[in-house]
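Dear support,

I submitted the protein below through the web form. The confirmation email said the job was done, but the results page showed an empty box. After a refresh the structure appeared. I'm attaching both so you can tell me whether what I see now is the final result or a partial one.
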Amino acid sequence: MIQKFIILVFAVVSFLFGCENAEQTGFRDGIAPVENGHLYYQIAGSGDAVVLIHGNAGDHRHWDNQFERFASRFTVIRYDVRGWGQSADPVIGSPYSNFSDLAALLDHLDVESAHIVGWSMGSGIAFDFVTAYPDRARSLVSVGPWVFGYRTEAISKTFEQAGAVVEAASEGGAEAGANAFVDYILADTVIDESADKFIRAVGSESSFWTWTNPNQELSLKPNAASQLSSLTIPILVVTAEHDLPACHDMADFIISEAQNAHRTVLADTGHLMHIEKPDEFNAKVVEFLAAPR
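What the results page shows now:
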C-alpha cells in the first residue's frame, strides 16, 4: 500500500511539473473501473487511438520512450495491467481476464476501436484482445512477440526460468523479483546498461502479486495461438537480433499462421529494443500505424 502511495505521489508531482507538455499533448490520467478492481491509465494526443500494453515485471513506464512521441500523431493510451503499477491487484476468488479489462478500459474512455501495441507479456494480452474482440482492433503490433498457447523447447525454457523469478520474489520481495527477472530471463538479451538499470528499477517498484499468489486470470478459450489464422487485421511483428530465442520462435509462428502479418528485425539490440533503440523502433512502428488502410 505504501509503495503504491509513493508511486501515486510521484505521478502527481510529475504531472504538475510537466504541465507544459500536458498542454501540448492534452495529457490526462485516471482510474478506470473494471470488474472487481480498477486500472490506472494515461492518455494524450489526438487522432486514431493507439493502446500500449507493457510487459512483465513493470508498468506503463515501459513505454516512456514512445508515449509522447506517438502522442504527436495519435491518441495514445497506456495503462497498468491488473496486478502491476497503480492498478488494482487481483482478488483471490474473483477471476478476471486481461483482455476483458482492456475492453472495459476502452469503454470507459469511449474508444470504439484502436491500434493495439503490446511488448512481451503485453503482446500476449494484445493477441488475446484482438482475438476476443476483432471488431475493436484496427491493427496489432507485437513487440518481443508473444502469443498465449504456443510452445516450443525455447518457450518451455523461458517458463522454467520464470520459476526462479517466482521463488526470488516470494522470498525476497519486489527488488529480488526484478533482479531475478533480468538475471534469469533477460540476461543474454540486454545490450545497453542503462536499459538494464531502468527495467530493474521499474520492476523493483512492482508488487509481483501475479507471480506470488494463486493465479486468478482466466485464459482465452480456445487460446489465441489456435485462432491466429482467423485474424485479418494488419499485424507487425517487431523482434530484435538478440531477442529471446522464445520470441524468435513466436515470431516465426505468427508469420506462418496469421493472414496479414509482417516482420521487422532491429539490429544490435535485444528484448528491450524499444528502450535501447527508441528512435529506430518508433520510426518503424509509427510508419506502420500511420499507413493508409
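Response: this is the final, complete result; the empty box was a page-load delay. The chain is about 45% helix and 20% strand.
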